[in-house]
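Quick check before the chapter quiz. The format below is the same one you will see on the exam, so make sure you can read both the input and the output lines.
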Amino acid sequence: MYLSYSDRGSISSIIQNWPQTNVEITVVTDGSRILGLGDLGINGMGIPVGKLALYTGCAGIRPEKTLPLTLDLGTNNKALRNDPLYMGSRREKISADEERDFLDELMAALTEKWPGIIIQFEDFKNPFPALERYRNTFTCFNDDIQGTGAVILAGIINAVKRSGVPAKDQRAVFMGAGSAGVGVAKQIVEFFMREGLTEEQARRSFWLADSKGLVTHDRGDKLAEHKVYFSRNDNEGKQFKTLSEIVEYVKPTILMGLSTIGGIFDKDILTRMGQLNERPVIFPLSNPSANSECTFEDAMKYTEGRALFASGSPFAPLAYNGRIRNPGQGNNMYVFPGIGLGAILSKAVSISQEMIYASAEALSTSLSDAEVSDGDLYPDISRIRDVSVIVAQGVIRAAQRDGLDRELAIREIDDAALDAYIRERMYDPKKETELARREVASLVGSAGGSAGAGGASRL
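Here is the expected output.
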């Protein structure tokens, strides 16, 4: 479904025309910040379609119960506006106030048509206002902020355990201070707090850098609102412009990349991380592979095989010192399908931070014994449906603890019964095909039997 800004005032009546009576989940984008591609306007429809395909494939949500939704709110991409084949409106992106009013109408219309619908926001240029405005009144979440944060948090939980360095001694440098970077850092703050730190102590464990260097109170520019929380005021007037300067100043245990600057974790940076730490945590999370801050091979080579590694893009396994090493990949598909499934099955009235955190915690426990012994940070992607069950179970239990669930039938059942309950309700196209074949065979058999009986009576 496409909705245009010109549809304001009529959004409800348009949504009422959607033929499916029971939509359980929608992914909504305005196409203004497609990862690695920028502002695509309505050409961003592939994102909701693709995400919802993963909900079906990974978490067994029936395809007819999904709604891909793209909002045509204008585009700041001049090339698109001047392209005669562009099918969207040829206007600049609407203002923040206009967007807020439009989304108010949209959220009300969606929940009027489908009261229990899960709403996932995706690839909005500024995702924070909508999330903050709607998170407590609608069943919604933002995958760019919360999904990314949760999947990386799961990897960090496992990496911190394996590093042998307690949370109180961790120092994290983030190259990249956009919405995704801040979202990830805030999730890890919560983990550090659960490990015994105060919020202030946890927050002070992070140093964020952007294109202008270390984010500080006194570097002379006006900081975007989302950067202020992690801005440093203990730099004693010194400004650190390059990543190498920041690494030397902070001496980090964790190096995170969300910058989209390919190769910025170069030989010198990686070697220094290996010198500073027995098990350096190195997460180059930018996509696609060309934008990854370093490769798996370089991380292994320059840390002498000691790096605890996870990336945003896939890398091939590597033979190192006679052993096959598998790179971790912090892919959001590990968590968002399970978040959606858990919210649907629990009939959650909202998606709390506790539920998001629970998804990360559940993912961190989903590794098999073999994966743990191999030093993996994430489970094998071939087990994604089993992983989604574990994540969904964690989300459901968190919703129950928060009193946000409305599905009474599963409140008192034990974990084994809940596991079975989840699996029984997951759509499986292979089973659907087999059931259809049996139904057709039964109908053919019945028709044949009726014809035979009719023939006998005529004789």
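If your answer matched, good. Residues 33 and 123 are 5 Å apart (CA to CA).
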